[in-house]
## 1
Amino acid sequence: LNTIFLGLIAISLFTYSTVKITFPNGFGIDQASPVSKLDVNGNATIGSSYSGANAAPTDGALVEGDVGIVVTSPNTKIDIEGDIAFREYTQDIGTNGGTNKFDDLAINTDYSFIRLTGPDGNFEITGISGGVEGRVLYLYNATENDMKFKFDDSLSSAANRFYSYDESDNIVKRRGIAMLIYSAADSRWIVGSKAG
């Protein structure tokens, strides 16, 4: 017998190579009124060595293998046939007391595409907090002024600072955008590319 545990209910089944269970209105796990074919109220762990050993984050998922989106044979950890979108978030960072200088700037880490507003003159950023390995940020300068990323500036904590290929400050003009990626090995944000 194999046992399936669903919330507080345990269902024992004989071992078969294939078992088909039909739920016309969807299958809910800790969800009495599913609105999808599979509706999970909580987290989920998928994978032979992950299952029973690793807890997924709250309301999130852990997947051990490759994931295909509109792809039947994924070749990478995430393989997508089609486009991808980063939802935009507008963050007003103000003027920092009229200085237009920002050290250890706190960015909303729920988003990758951030539209920055607030500064009333050319402004400088010496560091951004919340860097984790591989995190990508697209910072759109929605002000009428120049945005400058200061190279490895000591006014910010070491782990929040910026590196660039030419070891110099990087300026993004109004309506321009910069792409940053966080390097855990260097403990720095890398200014990868910019337009404007």
## 2
Amino acid sequence: DLLDGATDEQINMMIYICGKDLKFLLDERIRIYGAASDINEALRIGNSSKFWVRYKVDIALVYGLTPIYCCGEPLEIRETGLHFSYVKSQITRELFHLSETDFSKLVIAYEPIWAIGTGKTATVDEAQEMHAALRNHISKKYGKDVADSISILYGGSCNAANAASIFSQPDVDGGLIGGASLKSTDFLTIAQSFPK
């Protein structure tokens, strides 16, 4: 296996040298060798690996890659009403060590864990509220210009039926599309869902 035993720095260097074709291998390595078997599990155990994501973001930036940072809450946190503070604490812990210049290179994806691959999705209002809260949180650290310029995507079971309403919200800049991207007609509908 090409990546067996490779460090994160070596993998990111290979991506930098070889280009996009190797990015798929990085995703495979995380899935196979990471602490979790899938994204739900990786996000669920995220708090026990406080510096794992922070480290990956730093290494990606060193090699000129654009990190897509995913954050989100499990269902039990949302049900207690602590979802805003939970997700803001993820961003504070894992991203707020970055300089304004480096932070501006990120893309953030809000993916409520309870909605990934489940067919459940946040309502349009829930997505907008979280995106607005994240943008406001970023503004307090880096200023309004940075907060307004950074892309914040929605990634919890976004599909052809709900994309237009989600993308119409002022703080939702797009979608991180998973399973719906596997059906070309659905993906085309999603791509055409952005406000004109």
## 3
Amino acid sequence: LHACCAPCSSYVIEALSNIFDITIYYYNPNIHPETEYTRRLTELQNFLQKFIPALTNKVTLIAAPYNPEDFFIATNSRKEVELQTENERGERCRRCYFLRMKKAYEFAKANSFDFFTTTLSISPYKDSKMINEIGYELENSYSTIPGTSQKTLVPAAKNIITKSNISTRALEKISAQEIQSISYRPSTGLHYLPAD
């Protein structure tokens, strides 16, 4: 679960922690200055120590190193100066979403996770349609589900996960058909990571 901050993490953790083990990947080189980055990370750490769903379920936090240069390279906003004054939800944001989601995808893939998602689309300030399209793009650009021609198990923009929709059985016992029938928050895509 890529997370940008504690407030955006709360709903996703509450909705998914009874179903999945969650590893929060805090990677946000777009946040400036570093004191703000650290403040948000500290707030997320403090929140996880007090939030009941995080305490009673398996939720861990991984903080990637802070490197704002990643943001500047990915967005090219130093050379394309018009991006510096662009409104929220524009091309600079798309490039930034892609950077953070790709890093989360790569981390999840490297650690043999089954799914990846982000809290970015929970924010009313972000473009959830664009974020979900990036999720599908990442998922489709790497590989398909073993033994099928499918690349996506959960439609990102259709439903909402509730505890009544899915039991707390181990994930490996849940079939692809059951995963497809899980309802999920309209603005958050849950994307499949096929095994190598």
## 4
Amino acid sequence: KEEFNTEVVSEGYDLLTHTYMVLSQLDKLQAQYTLPEGISFEELRLFLILHDIGKPKANLNNTSQHAETSIYIGQIADRFHFSASTRGVFEALISQDLIGDLVKGIPENVGEHLSNVNSISAHVFAGTDLSFEATNFEKSLLKFFGSLKELSQEANMSPKDFLRIFDIYYKCDASSYTSDSEGYGSLNFLFENLNA
């Protein structure tokens, strides 16, 4: 399709190049993951091929890339008879840019703020209140995990299972903007800080 030949990212990649880089990252990361029951790596690979397919149309029409991609996913799901669970997972994954929104608020000293991530996610998933005063970034994490919990319900999965799929999806996508994927390295800082 012509969509794959369209420049879609600020780094100047067309969709085909970006998709190839994302799939290359999946090849590197796949051995580190076990997917939840009912989702295969073949299905995840198909999702990654489609994850930005609506971006060219959205850029052209000034509409939501997530809404446009969801339309494509729905059409492909109908044509190839995806199971309801696979379709639900794909649509939940694509419906929002949770990490993009979160990354915009990451402070320079991110390492100091990550010590409470497990506690925050546990509280959100359990529906309990925090036992400490949250910083602005931790409040962003609360919102992130709350949205993730809602999306897991839409996907009919436990939050932990949905988080596993979400994690590999975003690592493949975001790390495609690093020099590790032979890209320009515009997101190297994110992976350096998170691995510090």
